[in-house]
């Protein structure tokens, strides 16, 4: 047996982030406490930026390769998604770094019991939880590997590497610690179940094809008959379909699709808001990248078996996310159900099963990611006021957003822009993204037109709860001094500014981005 070959240039984006994560651990262990925060921020920023430059360099080479013994495929979709993830992660890290350590989103000491004297002592001492940056970097390594994984075992490893740090990050909120820890535990338990389903499905597909490589699974499907012992016992079709179903459970959980979406609102609400923004944007991009690769590389030969099920999942995801969002009274929970609905819209493009479908999904993921990071960055700026006149926690109840336009017109206008993009209003990136996925799906008879009609109906329902927030901000009386809008730092202004430019630019002049997405829509076999 020959040793697998490694193309380290192709793996450079992941290796750069991984090295940065290791260095961040060393900084946490050996650097003086007073210097850790700046060191971690600089290291995370430089590492992500370096990986982004590596992705751009690889894209200019126009050369798709498989490496690591065929376990990793660096092709058009992988590079597009890796670049998108890195840009969104960089914006999220800048938002985290701009938080005031004394009133920021992260707890002063994660190991302290909420409300204990140890926690109060850590707050008085001004401790900062700088471990969030190596955790972000390790999670980012998994996110970069997930859409590039070319076999099910590598994909499972990537899934766990991206998930485990997120479980910890969700429990590090500075305020409402119990809610944050509940979110972390719920995410961990349900995530562990979904990972188990994914692994069991991978084992069944290995039994069917005799290999975990995606191209080998496709070849086994095309051959129609395999001679493995497992297929002799269970039956070929049963083993294949059961494996595909269990695999789908693990991936649909990560994208927040029905009926595996129940974790989303609780985790989005309880996690520190900068982490929520990072998770909502980057995790969805990575998970949909893996879902695309499995659907288009491993399972195109059985699409007539799994397409009806995904059709139903997409339709229910769009409708349930849009309908339940109407009754939400917390802005983070509302954005969580909005995220669920958007997962359904993206599934519409996935079902097209052609290059137009891949390109539309890639564009939608990028457009949605920029808007999401910007929206959650703005949520961090709306805070409660303490009786002493200081800054309290985030004001996420919708009643606290009443009259916000009178207090901060620019913030209200920017948040309105993001909401209109989520709703898919023309001249925003959201409209272009929905138009792209609907256009790719509408010609796919017999299921396409019906699913597009469901998507249009869900979009119309979603407009209602977005408009409700806009009305609250502009036409209701202010809540007085109970809520304050903090002055954003330069890093937050930059992150939100990039989100605004992308939201408008991808809506008004989307041709270049659509062309880039379409040119990146070819998977390696």
Shape: globular
State the end-to-end CA separation: 23 Å
* Amount of helix: over 70%
Query: Strand order across the biggest sheet?
Result: 4-3-5
Strand content: under 5%
Q: What profile does the largest beta sheet have? A: 3 strands, antiparallel
Count the DSSP helices.
21
Low-confidence stretches: 225-234
Short description:
It is found in: Cell membrane; Endomembrane system; Membrane. This protein is mainly α.
Set out the fold topology.
Blueprint: H1 12-30, H2 33-61, E1 65-67, E2 72-74, H3 76-97, H4 117-124, H5 132-145, H6 152-169, H7 177-209, H8 214-223, H9 229-234, H10 236-255, H11 263-270, H12 273-298, H13 303-325, H14 331-350, H15 355-379, E3 382-385, E4 391-394, H16 404-407, H17 409-423, H18 429-442, H19 448-475, E5 483-485, H20 490-508, H21 511-519
Antiparallel strand pairs: 1-2, 3-4, 3-5
Helix pairs in contact: 1-2, 1-5, 2-3, 2-5, 3-5, 3-12, 3-15, 3-20, 5-6, 5-12, 6-7, 6-12, 7-8, 7-10, 7-11, 8-12, 10-12, 11-14, 12-14, 12-15, 13-14, 13-19, 14-15, 14-18, 14-19, 15-17, 15-18, 15-20, 15-21, 17-19, 18-20
Structure description:
By secondary structure, this protein is mainly alpha-helical. It has a domain at 302-518. Helix content is 70%, strand content 3%. It has a 3-stranded antiparallel sheet with strand order 4-3-5, with no helix packed on it. Strands 1-2 form a two-stranded antiparallel sheet. A hairpin with a 5-residue loop joins strand 3 (382-385) and strand 4 (391-394). Helix 2 (33-61) packs parallel to helix 5 (132-145) and helix 3 (76-97) runs antiparallel to helix 5 (132-145). The longest helix is centred in the middle third of the chain and has 33 residues, at 177-209. The radius of gyration is 23 Å and the shape is globular.
């Amino acid at each position: 047996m020959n040793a697998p070959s490694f193309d380290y240039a192709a793996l450079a984006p992941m290796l750069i982030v991984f090295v940065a994560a290791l260095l961040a651990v060393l900084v946490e262990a050996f650097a003086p406490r007073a210097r850790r925060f700046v060191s971690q921020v600089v290291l995370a920023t430089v590492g992500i930026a370096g990986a982004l430059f590596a992705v751009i360099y690889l894209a200019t080479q126009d050369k798709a390769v498989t490496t690591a013994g065929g376990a990793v495929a660096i092709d058009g979709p992988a590079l597009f998604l890796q670049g998108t993830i890195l840009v969104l992660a960089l914006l999220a890290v800048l938002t985290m770094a701009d938080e005031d350590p004394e009133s920021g989103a992260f707890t002063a000491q994660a190991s302290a019991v909420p409300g204990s004297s140890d926690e109060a002592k850590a707050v008085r001492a001004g401790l900062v939880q700088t471990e969030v940056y190596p955790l972000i970097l390790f999670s980012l390594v998994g996110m970069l590997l997930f859409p590039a994984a070319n076999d099910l075992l590598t994909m499972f490893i990537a899934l766990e590497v991206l998930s485990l740090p997120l479980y910890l990050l969700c429990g590090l909120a500075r305020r409402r610690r119990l809610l944050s820890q509940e979110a972390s535990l719920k995410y961990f338990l349900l995530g562990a179940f979904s990972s188990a389903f994914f692994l069991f499905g991978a084992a069944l597909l290995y039994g069917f094809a005799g290999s975990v490589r995606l191209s080998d699974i496709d070849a086994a499907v095309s051959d129609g008959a395999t001679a493995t012992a497992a297929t002799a016992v269970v039956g070929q079709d049963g083993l294949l379909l059961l494996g595909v179903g269990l695999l789908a459970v693990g991936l649909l959980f990560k994208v927040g699709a029905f009926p595996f979406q129940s974790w989303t609102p609780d985790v989005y609400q309880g996690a520190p808001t900068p982490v929520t923004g990072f998770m909502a944007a980057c995790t969805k991009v990575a998970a949909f990248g893996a879902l695309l690769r499995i659907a288009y590389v491993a399972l195109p030969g059985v699409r007539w078996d799994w397409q009806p099920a995904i059709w139903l999942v997409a339709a229910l995801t769009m409708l349930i996310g849009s309908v339940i969002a109407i009754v939400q009274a917390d802005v983070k929970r509302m954005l969580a159900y909005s995220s669920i609905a958007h997962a359904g819209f993206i599934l519409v493009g996935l079902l097209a099963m052609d290059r137009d479908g891949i390109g539309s999904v890639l564009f939608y993921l990028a457009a949605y990611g920029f808007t999401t990071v910007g929206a959650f960055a703005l949520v961090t700026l709306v805070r409660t006021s303490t009786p002493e006149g200081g800054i309290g926690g985030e004001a996420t109840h919708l009643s606290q957003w009443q009259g916000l336009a009178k207090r901060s017109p620019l913030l209200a206008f920017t948040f309105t822009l993001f909401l209109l993009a989520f709703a898919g209003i023309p001249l925003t990136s959201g409209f272009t993204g929905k138009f792209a996925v609907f256009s790719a799906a509408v010609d796919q008879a017999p299921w396409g037109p019906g699913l597009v009609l469901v998507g249009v109906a869900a979009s119309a329902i979603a407009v209602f709860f977005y408009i409700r927030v806009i009305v609250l901000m502009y036409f209701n009386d202010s809540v007085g001094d109970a809520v304050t809008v903090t002055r954003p730092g330069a890093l937050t202004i930059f992150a939100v500014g990039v989100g605004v430019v992308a939201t408008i630019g991808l809506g008004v002049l989307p041709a270049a981005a659509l062309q880039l997405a379409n040119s990146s829509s070819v998977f390696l076999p």
